[in-house]
Amino acid sequence: MNTSSIFKLFISIFISFLIFTTGANAWELQWYGQSAVKITTPGEKIILIDPFITGNPKTPEALKDLKKLGKIDLILLTHAHGDHIGDMASIAELSGAKVALNADMGHTLGTLGVLPYDQMIRFNKGGPIQPLPGITITMVHAEHSSDYLYTDAAGKKTVYPGGEPSGFIIELENGYKIYNAGDTGVFADMQFISDYYSPDLALLPIGGHFTMDPVHAAHAVKTYLKTANIIPVHYGTFSLLKGTPEEFKNALSSFPVNVIIMKPGEIKIFN
Ligand code: NI
Ligand code: MN
Q: Which of 8, 22, 81, 96 shows a CA-CA span of 20 to 30 A to 49?
């Protein structure tokens, strides 16, 4: 082997290493503000969670054109509140994406004609589903509520049951596990979620008033979850959601977790 072929061999090993470490496993998370996130999985599947976009004061204007969302493979709803259901019906119609949601919320949306039954994956807490090849989703408990405020064509508002509120454990094709807590207060079964699913990343609400505030969210992390990576969400969107990521970091003090603070619209790449 001459010097040049050794060099070529070295380069090809290096490129394979790069593909191995960044390519095959890489996936993306984009935050739209509040709890709305878009996940691009290692297998290039697009999952939208709680797509509150056009009415979201924190979503950058450039991201509010739903037609520009492009391919969507799955929409996930944690519960039926307006800042989570958001633009689900329009996006489902535009994209044809299936919507995975609590079975009871499904009945409410189905019987009202908000979402066609054949576009739903109605499920419930505890039993994993595989809505896309290699992707496993488990609905887990959340300490919250879930009514559905429906406005009919004449503008009359009626409240319907939205089923149980939930969080999700989302396992990607590469085994990476995301715990999306949804809207929640602290609950001791976060210990079960940590022990049983061992998530790599948790999205936690920190705004307070309707969910955990920064001090409660830090308690959840330190006492129960101990998840290595945390993205704080559900803060600053409305004046009532006063909690800030800085308060969350202060409350965590020296606890060894990686707090990832995102700007609305920002994309973060994970491996
Ligand atoms: Ni809520
Ligand atoms: Mn909410």
A: 22
